[in-house]
Design brief:
5 copies of one chain form a homopentamer.
Chain A: H1 4-10, E1 18-25, E2 28-32, H2 38-42, E3 47-54, H3 58-68, H4 72-79, E4 86-90, E5 93-104, E6 107-118, E7 121-128, H5 134-142, H6 144-147, H7 151-185, H8 191-211, H9 213-222, H10 234-297, H11 305-308, H12 312-333
Parallel strand pairs in A: 3-7
Antiparallel strand pairs in A: 1-2, 1-3, 4-5, 5-6, 6-7
Chain lengths: 337, 337, 337, 337, 337
């Protein structure tokens, strides 16, 4: 699967892996800066450096480590993806891992974002399928006053963006579930629906693993005591918390609904089979009548008076048709046919 | 679905979106006031302003924000529905979100109510299908003495009203479950029942998501420490807590009962199929007798003495009837037919 | 369902709704008193008034409220049944709600008991199907020394009685489950068993809802800090706690056992169906032999040498019987017939 | 079920119900003493009295109560079995209830042991099927140095013995599960296996109820603060804790495995039925060929040229055999036969 | 099953059971030492003795006990395997139990490692199938600076190695699950897949029991307060914690996926059966036509005009073929054939 998102974002800056690198003061972009000067800018009072990376190589991460004095373990984590969403505190710096999700070709594409947040800097490292944080940057630059709060506001904005991006994914799944629901209840479920139900369950499982640990991350961010997180930001992080809990609730609901759909599908399938067996039994009974009667008059006994009666054949035909017709009417009436 | 509730309530006041706006003192209605003077009235000692809104627009909310100095995030939440039930504290003001439920055309219609409660004012914002709080207002005005407690009593009265409204919804579901139960156990379950069972499970899931988070909201209200909540109100909020817990218990019970009904339905379906297979097998066996016997005497061998015996035909007929009758009696006896 | 329990207890005292009303001192019954003097007696040092009511009307409750200064919300609760088991503290008085259960006509009949316990008085209010507390009263009067402890001992005695009454209910269900178990494992399960299993599951659910919240009530009673509960009573309440926990454990076990029985029943049903299908298939195969062979020799070709052979008919009969016999023996051997 | 264990142990001492009664000092048995002197011996400094009872009568328990000043409720509990495993503290004495389990005739036999532990004495009361604690006594007497620690060491030794006795029970179940597993996966599962699976699930449920509450008992024993439990014993009780947790883990695993086995058995049963239906369908198709063809040539039309063709019969036979053979080969190839 | 791992590691040192025994100072290997001098070396300032054992006998463990003054219970545990993963603190020494897992012949082979960690020494005892810790030793010797931290770093390195070794096991299971998934959804599931699904579920259960208790061990190691664990090691242990939590999450996901696969397989099986029943019914209907018609014209009535019509036979054949063809087309169209 060639991912256009990846191609689009990886090369938008001079150095490969660097998507954006700018210094801000009082909520205003002061300068586009090279990575090499990032540490210097971040130490200027009232300045915040915001760097966006996409699948950086080790060398680039090492340079950032030197600039901002990042912790060795965080760098190792940022190099390889496949981390659980978490919040680590290394001295005065925070390291946040979040997993992103978006619909891509009818299936969910997962990505990972690692955030280094410290005094005067925010570094976001994206892995896999994940949209650029350009819209976040633009929104921050627009909300100049709030943005002037500094690096914790950027952290908030990115987390908010990630959580908001779960919504359309859930919406898509919800729509599809409702569609399958209709076909299950309308007795037209096929193997394709079974397959789709199965895939949706797997996808939801992955989505839950991606999203739910963020609840804990947000819970810690809304409580006081983390370095660099201003207590006035508390309501904002609580707002993100709320959204991610709503996402969690939706996921759990969908999981239950899919389980219900499975069970219902089993029952519908059983009913279907019963109906077919009934139909089979009905037609077998109806067709057994001419076979049995005709068999009798096909016997070769010397003395079989009916055979020599002029209207014998006609009467037998009428009897057969009458009995078959009566059976058909009966089966029809009690719903077997 | 055109919702008459919506139409009925949205226009009962001068300004669109405003359902009621009055000032109270010592539990007595002092004046119907325009929104613009609400802030002023709320600051008079011993006065409480109670405003009821229905799906207000942004402008109206902004005005209220100015009057009562409401928090930005709460205003944003109040504008769009789809919040989880919660209790937020912004400075000295409380922001409560609750979801309402009522039966509408045989299905549950959900609504949302947002409450702003602060020193001297209560603002209720309704979204979607939810009955007007006019009865609450009337009841409060009747219970003058208790009402004079102020804004926390109004909060209690509205929450109590919301929780009480869950009861008939649950009652309706309960009745329907019992009806389906009878048809499942009476072996007359059809696809319609399966569909209905499925819908009930989904509805209960939604009802649970709407109601259960209120338990936490009430738990916090009954404990001391929230601004503007008088400790003497504690028993009242504990009473609401008790009711919502009872609602929760009923929902959980119904969920289990529906799961039992599903399983039982599966077993009944299986038994039904077994019965049909038995019937099919029995009739196949009975009808195979004339076919086989007649087939034998339909053979064209030169030497078949029975064929030339005078009573051959009659004896064969008797034998066939006897065997068939005996089989029928046997199948009847062991319950296959 | 006319409930004889109700009729028997409701009229055993002068005033309707009052079952008993007596004053005790040092564990000895001092006087049968009218309700109107109850408050006065309860305030005499060393005296305890114990009143037993059955579905009282509002007027009677109001009078008690005046006598003992009971809380408004407790009175409201006591008037209507359908409360969750709980322990409320209103000032120096306790309000306890418990649900009772007893077997009645093969199904569980549930009742509710509300207890007001304060300095010098205990009022028990029974609703629905529940035995009189006369045996408790007699037992207390017999255990004079322990009884002299006062109102907390009465509370203990009633709770102990309620919890002990769950045991025969559970025992009855257990017996019935074992009976159904035998019929399921012995492959004679019928629709009646399915229906009974379903009803037992529902009843157990109700019993759990009635009994399990009492665990929390007892837990609070065994801990110090409640008004009027002497710490020396702690081991007694811990004993009730233990019993109710045992009841809870039994209920959970029975619930699991019923779930197992359901699953096993599904498997047994499946096995039964497989067996019938096998029988059907076997007989179809056996009977297809004469039909096919006879069909062949019923053909009217001019040249069919076997037909003119003297022993043709006999040989064919022998062949048919041999093949059918061999098939029968084979099916028998591998257990299909 | 006559239980030989019971007969063997109940009469090994002079008085009925008393299995052993000895005084120890510094880990050495000082004297076999009569019950009547037990209290006296227990108060001698450095002495411990260890009494073993089996289903004692009330009189015997009353005497012990007088000797060691035991709590009334503990005596009542010790008289009747059917207690939950628990640890009660009455003043300076401990009362411990544990349930024992051992294999007996292929099913688990459960017993109960009550332990009174106080300054200078340990009384063990056994109910139902449970091995004598003679081996424990011997082991303690052998480990003289550790034993000199006193009554808490005896408590540890008995609990350790009880927990160790769960292991062979679990081992037996495990072996049986593996055996059933093989037969389920090898498609030879029968009704007997279903019955056995069901019984194993019930037994495991009982075993869990017996064993798991001991986790809590041990947890409290390993923590400081209980009277008469020396903190140096902590690692020993933690060891028992560890073993019982391991037992718990094994039980939970077995429960899950049995649930898996049930589900797998359902699937195997379904597959079996599908296979039979396929076989039935295949043979029905094969046998329908001669029936249909022979039927055609059994018709009595005047003009049927094939009938008069010399090789007609032979050709028809060949055609029938060819088609049947071809069908057989096809069904064989795609696995239906 | 002869385990080559065992053979390979058990004899790599002079004494049987001893795999390696070396003293380190400042992260550098100072000397290969005999067991007898281990205690002495461990007490030299700045020195750490690291001993690797594989299934040692009692004598060897007793010697180590004397050298490092190990606790009796830990020695007993280390002698027999089958411990739950745990962390015990005996005075100033830690005793850690972990279970290892690796793929071996398509199934998971489990082992156990016991670690004694105290001032100046680390002893690792391996049981069952588990790779040697030689790679850990080499990695430690390479990371000289970190290694100079001492015995807690060795503990970290071994735990990290154990946890990392779970990953390929999970990966293998994941691959197999995906393979089975494809065959289930592609309707080609066979009894072999059912068996494999069952085995995977059992294996995952065992893996969970082996891995998940390590979460608790790591959680305690990352918190301050354990003897000999330097607080600067906290981030490293938190890193191991993170990995084991990720392993846990993967295991839980796989367990759910396998449960989904089971359910889906049941539905697919049901659908398959329905399809076969449909096919059977269709062919039975088609073949019943010639049988019934031919039966009619096989009757021996004197007066059957069609029989004497010249084109009778041909017309009947055409009628039969037409009806059969029409039925075939109809069944084809609605998907029954």
């Amino acid at each position: 699967m060639t991912n256009p998102l990846k191609l689009a974002t990886a090369s938008s800056h001079g150095r490969p892996g660097v998507v954006a690198c700018a210094a801000y003061a009082a909520g205003r972009r002061v300068a586009e800066i090279p990575i090499e000067e990032a540490g210097e800018w971040s130490r200027k009072p009232g300045h915040v450096v915001w760097i966006g990376l996409h699948e950086p190589d080790l060398e680039l991460l090492r340079q950032l480590q030197r600039e901002f004095n990042l912790h060795e373990l965080a760098i190792e984590d940022a190099l390889k993806a496949h981390q659980r969403p978490k919040l680590e505190q290394y001295g005065d710096a925070l390291f946040v891992v979040a997993r992103t999700a978006q619909m891509f070709d009818g299936r969910i594409a997962f990505g990972e974002t690692h955030l280094f947040v410290g005094k005067g800097y925010v570094v976001s490292v994206r892995h896999g399928a994940s949209t650029s944080y350009k819209p976040v940057r633009e929104r921050c630059e627009a909300a100049q006053k709030a943005f002037s709060e500094g690096e914790d506001f950027i952290l908030y904005a990115i987390l908010d963006f990630i959580v908001d991006n779960y919504i359309p994914v859930i919406q898509t799944i919800q729509d599809e579930v409702e569609e399958i629901e209709d076909s299950i209840l309308g007795e037209t479920a096929t193997q394709i629906h079974v397959t789709r139900l199965y895939q949706l369950r797997r996808d939801l499982l992955r989505l839950r693993n991606a999203a739910v640990p963020l609840v804990e991350v947000c819970r810690r961010l809304e409580q006081p005591g983390l370095p660099g997180i201003d207590p006035v930001m508390s309501p904002l992080f609580r707002d993100v918390s709320d959204h991610i809990r709503r996402v969690q609730e939706e996921i759990e609901s969908l999981r239950e609904v899919l389980a219900f759909a499975f069970e219902t599908s089993l029952m519908t399938g059983q009913a279907q089979q019963t109906e077919i067996t009934r139909k089979l039994a009905s037609w077998a009974a109806i067709l057994a009548v001419p076979t049995a009667v005709a068999g009798l008059y096909g016997m070769n006994f010397d003395v079989m008076p009916e055979l020599h009666w002029k209207y014998g054949y006609a009467v037998v035909l009428v009897v057969i048709l009458t009995v078959c017709g009566w059976l058909y009417w009966r089966f029809r009436r009690n719903g077997w046919l």
